[in-house]
Amino acid sequence: MSDSTPFSSLDAGAPLVDPQLARYMAEHAAPAVCADALIRDGQGRILLVDPVYKDGWDLPGGMLEDEEPASALVRELGEELGLGVDVGRLLAVDSIPASVYGRTVLAFVYAGHLPDDQAPTALVPQDGEIRTAEFLPEGKALELLPPPLRRRLAAALAAERGSHTAVLRDGHRPPPRRRDHYALLPAPMMAATVLVTDTAGRVLVLEPTYKDHLELPGGMVEADESPAQAAARELAEELGLTVPVGRLLAVDTSAAAGRHGRALTCMVFAAPPLSPDRAERLSFPDGEIRAAYWLDRGAAARRLPARLAARVSAGLDALAAGGVIHLERGEPAAPSAEAAVEERAAQARAAMVDRLTADGVLTDPGVRQALLAVRREVLLPRCYIRRPTAAGQPKAWQLLDGADPRDRDEWLAWIHDGDSVMVQHRGEPLDAPRRGQIVTGGGFTGMSTGMAAVVKGLQALGLTAGDRVLESGTGPGLVTAALCEILGDASVTTIEVDPHQAAAARSRLAALGYRPRVVRGDGLDGCRGELFDKILVSFAARGLPPALTAQLADGGTLLAPVTTGAVGWPAQAVVRRTGDALDAVLRPVPTGYRPGLGVDLVVAPDRMPVGPVTVHRDRPAPPEEAGFWLAVGHLVPGLVRVVGADRLTLYAPAEESCVVVRSDGDSWCVERTGPRDIWAEVESVHRRWLRAGRPDHYRLDLADPAVQRVYGGAGAHPLTWRLPRTPLLPLAAGELGTASAEPTAQ
Questions:
Q1: 49: nearest Cα among 145, 140, 117, 116
Q2: What is the rounded CA–CA span in Å between residue 641 and residue 623?
Q3: 394, 450, 629, 684: most buried by Cβ count inside 10 Å?
Q4: Would you call 614 helix, strand, or coil by DSSP?
Q5: Confidence band of 746 (pLDDT split at 50, 70, 90)
């Protein structure tokens, strides 16, 4: 062999290293390095050694020779104590500046694990360097160590309880950035279990290849997913099941103890019962499961470990009676007294109103009082709730029934969360679907509006005593009830096109003592021949309905959401009438309304378009001003905007094109896929927006209601476009009620 042969070529398959680089690395100055171990005995005590060559106690370990830190640690423990230790993960790295020892020192602290057959009492100093070695309680060990090493051990102990490696400088942790601070916080381990049953009520238990006892479907939650998402992923990986994960049934918690050394929280979720055919066709895609068994409750209790049997029992009880059962180390915790539904709903309603107030959304005392009075649980007796599904599977929703004790806790929390609540799927009668049914792919035709948007709309109307109000789009009747609270029943007219929603709203409002005029008709057409002081449209249209602007009384105000038909560009038009003149402004808003019937929707595809990716760097950063993005939504048609934590994504589904814009720290990177150059169109609008003076809102010219032109900015280069006409729904003659006729009972 030639002397010039690079040393790395001796390893089969290893990449060649340039000889000059190898010589440079061999001669380069290097810090001194030591490797120590955090070793515990079966009682959790920590091993310390008393060296003869320095004062005070120390962690077992020593200085590196020409070797890796873990190899040095194995060598040192064998030489000093005759211990054969399995070196675990790296817990801490401490860099000690040259000002301390005259040379930079790197100190590594690893987790060390004694083999099961090695007694901790058999500690015999071997080479004369160790005077004595002893296992000590954690607090005593920290007390005996000198301050720099005490700080290093404390950081290693925190890392042992968490999921990170502590990085220190002379025993001190450098001040972390906020993101790093939260990432380093100790956290309990989180597991997600699914109680899978069949139609006969049997429970699915698994025989894993990596454990010596039966288990339940599920596994550990990863850092980037929720427990329910983890449960869905585990079902797909372990069993090939792509069913949606249901509600939470039980939570089993424990403090740091036992073989894990960390606190553990296990969440037990429901899953839809499997049909006999599906139950017999389970597969084991990832090879972790050897076999699966369907057991009745008694057999599951006998064959599962006690802690898992307790989770099965709690899950079955929660399925039958509703609620969520709390276990502590497998033992049921004392349940709190069950409050009446009305009392619990009032508490949840007050909490929702308090959140809106604390967020600065709710400022009007009259609106606040109305929201506290409206009993949402009566107007939203049933609702659909989003259920997690495995990656690549369609979105799924499940119907909750507030009258069923099994759904009550989850239903009460969901309808008082403040977000939009889905109540009707594809025009179905509201009482027709069975409890627990699952629908996929969207298609909701009835929902409540998010509370932040409701509050802003009610406050923007400036309601005063004596106002005649038209609400276009009744939905579940939540806004209708609030208007009745503020103005009185006689002042409120509400119009709803869907016969099932109109009938349900009328009945439920009456049950609460509200009797506004409920009209079944097209909300875009309003109530012809009448005038209203305030008009509130609760769904989004492509343009302003001329029939509604014609029904606005002198001095009146109309609020109407405007949509492009796509997600990501919400706006609201505010129209005020003075005599025959209409003054109208279009402004961007943080959240949008559902599009009305007949609006062609543009939605993001389930998967990003595939194909060659073109990358452009050093592009200008995308502006954050909402006025700019409102213009993009109207001037660059067919786009869907999705804003993530670290990127902006624009889809053009019709052209199977996509652009992703992200920062790489020093510049902005634009990744383009598909034939349409979306970002070039966006940048063109940006240039026009800048020439127009960066408008943050737009004027609407309604001199001719059929030609609705939008203007933004001032000077010679205003930004302008037209809103499309909004056609009425093609309903059969005589199908709709009229404002002048008493609505028929539904």
A1: 145
A2: 14
A3: 629
A4: strand
A5: very low
Phi, psi of 580 (to 5 degrees): -90, -5
* Distance separating alpha carbons of residues 467 and 556, to the nearest angstrom: 9
> What pLDDT band is residue 255 in, cutting at 50, 70 and 90?
confident
Nearest to 517 by CA among 468, 467, 461: 468
Whether the predicted pLDDT of 128 surpasses 90: no
Amino acid 337: pLDDT: 42
| Mean pLDDT computed over 411-438 | 94
The per-residue pLDDT for 684 is 93
pLDDT-derived band of residue 95, with 50, 70 and 90 as boundaries?
A: very high
Mind spelling out the 3-state secondary structure of 317-369?
HHHHHCCCEEEECCEECCCCCCCCHHHHHHHHHHHHHHHHHHCCCCCCHHHHH
Q: Residue 708: pLDDT above 50? A: yes
Rounded to the nearest 5 degrees, what angle is found at the Cα of 240, between the Cα atoms of 238 and 246? 85
Buried-exposed string 290-318: b where 16+ CB fall within 10 A, e elsewhere: eebebbeeeebbeebeeebbbbbbbbbeb
What's the pLDDT at 705?
Answer: 78
DSSP alpha helices (H): ranges in 496-625? 499-511, 546-550
Cα 675 from Cα 151, distance rounded (Å) = 58
Mean pLDDT on 317-332: 89
Q: How far apart are the first and last CA of the chain?
A: 96
Q: Which amino acid belongs to residue 620? A: P
User: In which element (H, E) is residue 256 found?
Assistant: none
DSSP letters, 166-224, are EEEETTBPPPPPHHHHHHHS---EEEEEEE-BBTT--EEEEEESS-SS-B-SEEEPPTT
The pLDDT confidence band at residue 122, using thresholds 50, 70 and 90, is low
Q: To the nearest whole number, what is the mean pLDDT of the chain?
A: 87
pTM reported for the whole predicted model: 0.68
Give the DSSP H or E segment for 235.
helix 227-239
CA distance 265 to 101: 45
Closest CA relative to residue 492, chosen from 511, 525, 519: 519
In DSSP terms, 586 is beta-bridged to 573, 698
**Token pair belonging to 36:** 């120590």
The side-by-side arrangement of strands in the sheet containing 218-220 is: 218-220, 189-195, 264-270, 248-254, 325-328, 331-332
Distance CA 712, CA 699 (A): 6
Question: Which tokens go with 296?
Answer: 């009745």
Ramachandran angles phi, psi of 604, nearest 5°: -70, 140
* CA distance readout (Å), 224 to 165, 221, 262: 19, 8, 20
Distance CA 360, CA 589 (A): 15
String of DSSP letters for 262-313: S-EEEEEEE-PPBPHHHHT----TTS-EEEEEEE-HHHHHHHS-HHHHHHHH
- The sign of the dihedral angle between the CA atoms of 472, 478, 479, 484 is positive
DSSP string, 393-411: SPPEEEEEETTSTTTHHHH
Note every long-range contact of 163-167, with CB atoms under 8 Å and residues 24 or more positions apart, other chains counting. 163/187, 163/223, 165/89, 165/90, 165/91, 165/92, 165/93, 166/91, 166/92, 166/93, 167/92, 167/93
Strand partners, 471: 494, 536
Q: Are 499 and 474 in contact (CB under 8 A)?
A: no
pLDDT digits (tens, 9 = 90+) for 561-578: 998 877 778 899 999 999
Q: Give the Cα separation of 124 and 553 in Å (integer).
A: 97
CB 727 within 8 A of CB 598: yes
Query: DSSP readout, 18-64?
Result: -HHHHHHHHHS---EEEEEEEEB-TTS-EEEEEESSSSS-B-SEEE-
Task: Determine the average pLDDT of the residues in 528-547.
Answer: 93
pLDDT(391) > 60: yes
Q: How far is CA 105 from CA 30, 172, 707, 740, in A?
A: 9, 14, 76, 89
Confidence grade of residue 120 (pLDDT, cut at 50, 70, 90)? low
